[in-house]
């Protein structure tokens, strides 16, 4: 097969895989909707169709510096995504491949080139932990890391949005039962994997739970993450996370409003807890009743799985650290519900491979790609309807071309068989001519039948000439086949005549 044919076959196969991918992702999302899972339901836009938000002056300045540095690294089409503890996050596209990424920039040097060593060490630790935890689909994937003049850049897999955005889209700011179970399972999967690598996120909150293009929750933002080296009797030695979500033993006992309440409650229970306060300050608006029994409203008690969910919630939020449920136990319960409610093999969208991505880039439609750590791609299509039409027409053309190829092969085979029959006829004529020559050497009395045989031979040649003018190969084949018995008959008749005389 020549290079052109190989490219053609590769292109057709890529388009077929792309069509299957589009069908599969539509099927998965429809399955979630039928089950009542609350999703982002936001349009998947190419970068040129995404509007920039209005930035604060300081953000705009940092944004411009990052864009300038990233342009030199081969990125373009920038959009602002958000701001974390340590820096900005941008959406950018690799100019050569049309693959897009979320790029986090942390300013480790000032404009004069002076390095902030503490911040630089923390970024290095973040990269180390992301690398260790990169093999789970429920943990954000670090694709690359490189240095700019002022910023260190972390290239991450792009996600659609956050779990907070799903909540904000609902009037009551709540998740329904099946959605809560589905996303809790995703988060538990991510946390269990992170803990299995002896790491802590240290900043787990709704804004740091992303939603990927599969519709799954992904644990992200490892700016405050740490390696889990030592444990106290009941609590982690250090906690740097958000106050709304942190465990009660992580509050400063010297704080008279929240921390002291929890400290006194532990003393009353006779529980010794080594409290290591976070040093990020206190937000007095946040809940301060973590030592009190939870109340469940009527809506919760009407849930199908309210008993299982209550068991998990009370197990994970137990005021006494040593009595808390391990994340693995919660995950087992959640996975059991998920396996009952969903077909697990249908929950992940099959991404396209690198070869398909390269061929897909040649299509007329404007397509960009989201890349994951396994080098698979999720296409973002400007006009999916027109692409589906293009693929449909291409499929019809492929079927037509396959039929033509089939007929051409049959035509070649037919010509080969006709050539074989012509060789057989030529052999018969050779034998006939030999017998004629023998008769010509006989006495004159035998020459009259020979002349009659010559007339018959002329008739045969005349018939063959007529067949050569025919264009339809199947008829030509049948007519030549009909001549063979006639030739055999005449040859046998002449040989018998010679033997008698």
Automatic annotation (TrEMBL):
This is Kinase domain protein. PANTHER family: SERINE/THREONINE-PROTEIN KINASE PLK. One of its GO terms (molecular function) is ATP binding. PROSITE patterns: PROTEIN_KINASE_DOM. The keyword Coiled coil applies. It comes from Tetrahymena thermophila (strain SB210). Keywords: Coiled coil, Kinase, Transferase. Transmembrane segments: none annotated. GO terms for cellular component: nucleus. Residues 75-338 form the Protein kinase domain. Residues 397-438 form a coiled coil.
């Amino acid at each position: 097969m020549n290079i052109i044919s190989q490219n053609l076959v590769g292109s057709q196969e890529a388009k077929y895989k792309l069509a299957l991918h589009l069908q599969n992702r539509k099927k998965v999302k429809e399955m979630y909707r039928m089950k009542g899972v609350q999703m982002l339901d936001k349009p998947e836009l190419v970068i040129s169709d995404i509007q920039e938000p209005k930035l604060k002056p300081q953000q705009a300045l940092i944004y411009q510096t990052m864009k300038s540095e990233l342009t030199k690294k081969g990125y373009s089409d920038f959009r602002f995504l958000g701001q974390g503890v340590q820096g900005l996050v941008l959406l950018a596209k690799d100019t050569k491949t049309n693959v897009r990424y979320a790029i986090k920039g942390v300013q480790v040097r000032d404009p004069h080139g002076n390095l902030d060593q503490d911040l630089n060490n923390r970024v290095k630790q973040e990269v180390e932990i992301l690398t260790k935890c990169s093999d789970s689909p429920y943990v954000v994937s670090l694709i690359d890391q490189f240095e700019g003049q002022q910023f260190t850049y972390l290239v991450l897999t792009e996600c659609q949005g956050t779990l907070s955005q799903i909540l904000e889209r609902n009037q009551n700011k709540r998740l329904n039962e099946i959605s809560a179970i589905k996303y809790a399972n995703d988060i538990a999967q991510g946390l269990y994997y992170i803990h299995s690598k002896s790491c802590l996120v240290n900043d787990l909150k709704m804004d740091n739970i992303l939603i990927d293009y599969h519709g799954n929750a992904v644990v992200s933002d490892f700016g405050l993450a740490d390696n889990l080296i030592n444990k106290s009797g009941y609590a982690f030695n250090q906690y740097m996370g958000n106050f709304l979500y942190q465990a009660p033993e992580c509050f400063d006992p010297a704080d008279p409003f929240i921390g002291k309440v929890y400290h006194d409650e532990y003393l009353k229970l006779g529980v010794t807890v080594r409290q290591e306060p976070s040093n990020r300050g206190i937000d007095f608006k946040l809940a301060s009743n973590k030592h009190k029994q939870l109340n469940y409203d009527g809506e919760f008690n009407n849930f199908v799985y309210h008993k299982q969910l209550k068991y998990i919630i009370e197990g994970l939020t137990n005021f006494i650290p040593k009595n808390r449920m391990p994340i693995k136990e919660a995950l087992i319960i959640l996975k059991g519900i998920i396996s009952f409610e969903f077909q697990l093999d249908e929950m992940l969208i099959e991404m396209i491979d690198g070869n398909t991505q390269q061929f897909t880039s040649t299509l007329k439609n404007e397509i960009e790609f989201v890349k994951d750590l396994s080098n698979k791609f999720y296409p973002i299509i400007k006009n999916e309807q027109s692409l589906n039409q293009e693929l449909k027409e291409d499929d019809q053309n492929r079927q037509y071309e396959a039929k033509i190829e089939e007929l051409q092969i049959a035509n070649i085979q037919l010509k080969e068989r006709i050539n074989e029959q012509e060789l057989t006829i030529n052999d018969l004529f050779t034998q006939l001519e030999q017998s004629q020559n023998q008769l010509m050497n006989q006495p004159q009395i035998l020459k009259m039948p020979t002349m009659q045989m010559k007339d018959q031979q002329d008739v045969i040649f005349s018939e063959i000439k007529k067949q050569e003018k025919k264009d339809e190969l199947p008829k030509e084949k049948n007519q030549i086949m009909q001549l063979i018995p006639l030739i055999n008959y005449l040859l046998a008749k002449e040989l018998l005549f010679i033997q008698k005389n």
